[in-house]
Amino acid sequence: MTEITKTIETMPDAIKRFVLHWGDMGGQWGVNRSVAQIHALLYISEQPLTAEQICDVLGIARSNVSNSLKELLGWKIIRRQPVAGDRRDHYVAEIDVWEIAKHIAGVRKQRELDPALETLDFCLAAAKDDINVSETQRERLQAMHKFTTDVSGFHDQMLRVPTPTLLRLIKMGDKIVGLLNMGRKPKA
User: Fold this and answer.
1) CA torsion angle for 37, 43, 44, 45 (degrees, to 10)?
2) Pick from 92, 118, 171, 174: most CB atoms within 10 A?
3) Cross-strand partners of 83
4) CATH 1.10.10.10 fits 8-93, yes or no
5) What is the tens place of the pLDDT at every residue in 62-98?
6) The whole model's pTM is what?
7) Is beta strand 78-80 parallel, antiparallel or unpaired with respect to 49-50?
8) Which region holds residue 76: left if phi is over 0, alpha if psi is between -120 and 50, else beta?
9) Where are the domains of the chain?
């Protein structure tokens, strides 16, 4: 987007569709539509934008924009960027898609996996000596705990892998699965 003063209606079709679709996808991922649209606009923008400019472009209320910007700052996928001669806050998005994904995955883990593990820890401890909890129920709680612990550990491991290595792993896809299945007989 070369001109900041455009509204969503006057944007090029490709940019408009990206911003609107990202907003729809945000809803699918449990993120407020406005938050996702603002992120998309900042990501695609070639220049830092003020909250007022975001309001004008997207037609979103100032209070909604302010709250959305706070959330995006908390996710560390946007940041404030000073602009010489202007005292207002300007915002830019992280443009490295891998960094965006890592930040989002970290927040999702913190919001979803960590509380799930805490709850499962409590449930396992409470079920341990409770005669009203069957052995099958304990086993299912343990299985869910192991799964959640494994996913949490995998997340932590993947965040430590350098991006170029992650890219190589993704490109290897089926080859890795094949290596992991070495020595196993194919299912008939």
Assistant:
1) 100
2) 92
3) 86
4) yes
5) 999 999 999 999 999 999 999 999 999 999 999 999 9
6) 0.79
7) unpaired
8) left
9) 8-93, 97-164
